[in-house]
Amino acid sequence: MTAAAPIDATTGARTAPIRRVRLTVTGTVQGVGFRPHVHRLATELGLAGLVGNDSAGVHIEVEGGPATVRRFEQRLRAEAPPLAHVADVVAVEVPVQGATRFTIAASQHADGPVTTAPPDTAACADCLAEVADPADRRFRYPFTTCTNCGPRFTIITSLPYDRPATTMAGFPLCIPCDAEYHDPADRRFHAQPVACVDCGPRIWLEGPAVADGGGSGSSDEVLLATQRLLADGAIVAVKGVGGFHLACRADEGEVVAMLRRRKQRPGKPFALLARDLDVAGRLAHIDDTEAAVLTSPAAPIVLLRRRADAPLADAVAPGNPLVGIMLPASPLHHLLLGDVPGSDVAAQDVLVMTSGNLSEEPLCTEDDEARERLAAIADAYLLHDRPIAVPCDDSVVRVDTVGGRAATTVLRRSRGYVPTPVPLPFEGVPALAVGGHLKVTAGLTDGRRAWLSAHIGDMGTLPTLRAFERTVDRFATMHEVAPRRLIVDAHPDYTTHRWATRHADGRAVVEVQHHHAHVAAVMAEHGIASGTPVLGFAFDGTGYGPDGTIWGGEILLADYAGFERLAHLSTVALPGGDAAIGHPHRVALSHLRSAGVGWDERLPAVAHTSLDERRLLAAQLDRDFRCVPTSSVGRLFDAVASLIGVRHEITFEAQAAIELEVLAGEAEGAWHPLDLPLVEVSDGPDQLDSGTLVRGVVAAVLDGVAPAAVALGFHRALAEAVCATAAVVRDRGGPHLVALSGGVFANALLTDLATTALARAGFTVLRHQLVPPNDGGLALGQIAVGAHHSRS
């Protein structure tokens, strides 16, 4: 509404008309400096009105000349703060009030969809400069933060995002911090975690390795004591932003081996924390894209190619040419890796920094919990008194060349990325998705957006179940969503499935087939519209099939409404079911039997298997005793890895497949040709004939072909089979849109080969960019399928 132009009482001339517009801004617009941005912009343009937070987002009213109001609306989104993400701006004309100044209103609750909580972000350059400046009052303060950086998601207890709704509520602001907080011109204006040494959190050191009185005092005294312990080979539990880490020296093999024994993690690589990009560059080869990801606000762990002369113990990442490196995400971590002024102790410039838990257990977040659960691992605890409201492990990403271009794959979506939502391509009803069994994340939707939780873990222990329950409760409370249905994996024995059934309370429980969810996840990521079919290749290790077998090599004609199984990898018996997963040599012998190949002791897989074990396996396969049919591509990777002598026993998921990919990368383009043909089946889905491929691998091994050439040939054969199958389906009238999902497509080499071949053949390829291709992205697909069902 534009008010009639008033008449100036002095001159009698009519002045310019006045408008007042109410704007509602949604997205990631709280805790990222959006209100200060609005205040500065409105003040600069001479507009009156107000800005405030509510649980739905940021609401603004601006009053002034029509042209000026239009400029404000244009610049509102274009000049938004770097951490903000504006999803939508809705403008409504309201009556002019004759306001004369622009104010910031108190936060309030609002009906309707809530806004999105911001993710945690790494310390910004301005804050780090203050930490390093002896003249600054925050010199060497471990919790320095501002509007543009610092903890957000992990300290939020409810929305709207204001200090009373965070774990900083227990730290009253001192006079200087309060002045900064209320000054619209200050970088800390309404920065909820703002604090200083006089009013904010503090650190201390405790534990059996700490001498009496040696763990208290100033921050520098505590940091110095911690650095001495680390230098002497101790393992220190460090309370970070989203949970605890276990830290130790990275250059001493005995120290790293001790951490492996105590943590019960025999082979899985450890992550590293490097002081800065220069230090990281001495450990690994880093290109421009990888450097940009390392130094991004998310500050994830990035998998990088390890340098041959890197000063690292072999036990950090045994047998793996890749090493996971992250840079400090908080001032505390920066200070831990920096020298304390006046000290004669040189700080480590790189540390092992792995999740603070026992293997297969959830992340520790509370002090007492860490003291109890990490007592057998840690020699000391570097603690602070800022509570962690929401656990959030480190994110893991990998940058590779896929289809000729640099592509980033998120392998674990957690700190720095969560809880940024994924918009759904259609509307549904509020629902909770509980994920699968491994790499579990929970998903929540209000019907328009999907929020995925941080990484929870594998649902094999009671502590993980408890962590899952806490996550579900916090997520629903934070986003004020009351789920009207629960969406589960179709596997009836999954812990998450049983939990949802017990907690349904009359709500519908919707089952979604595992591989359909994988395909739907990548469709939802790319905003594929309802009713648009795709040809989905869902390759992974394990998934419950409607026929009661273990699926894992699926070619599906799918949309959100359902799927048709057009083809799959030919099935073999998995002796002992899931028990065989840790023993690739057993899977290899089963593949040999299925392919009609004898158990020749010249084959590494056979030679590794004792005579007694062979007899037992033969009897088990002959009698079909406790043998589950599987079409899993993940198990085919295991079989090939064992057949060529790469890995016969595994200590962590996908270990054999990872090492097979590594070996293939060493072939330098020289591969042994192998074939994985598509066989037409008259009374069921077509099959990719694994028997032909296995016979080819056996012949190559017996002929003395280099294992690396066989490994690369296997990857190429699988990629060529994907492209050839897609072409057959297209020739039959199928879609040109191809979706690649499932944990097997975390394999960068296979993904590149398949994407390149498909693109050359004229297909449009959808691959994961926002959520992991593994089961960490499963909840998004469950939400997409469940949301579509709610429309029917």
Structure explained in plain terms:
- Helices cover 31% and strands 21% of the residues.
- It is of the alpha/beta class and 792 residues long.
- Among the domains are: 2-104, 2-Layer Sandwich (Alpha-Beta Plaits); 116-276 and 284-290 and 310-393, DHBP synthase; 396-519 and 776-785, Nucleotidyltransferase, domain 5 (2-Layer Sandwich).
- Strand 29 and strand 30 form a beta hairpin.
- It is globular and about 85 Å long.
Tell me briefly what this model is.
The chain is α/β, with parallel strands linked by helices and 792 residues long. Strands 7, 8, 9, 10, 11, 12, 13, 14, 15, 16 and 17 form an eleven-stranded mixed sheet that branches. It has a seven-stranded mixed sheet with strand order 29-30-26-25-24-31-32, sandwiched between helices. It is globular and about 85 Å long.
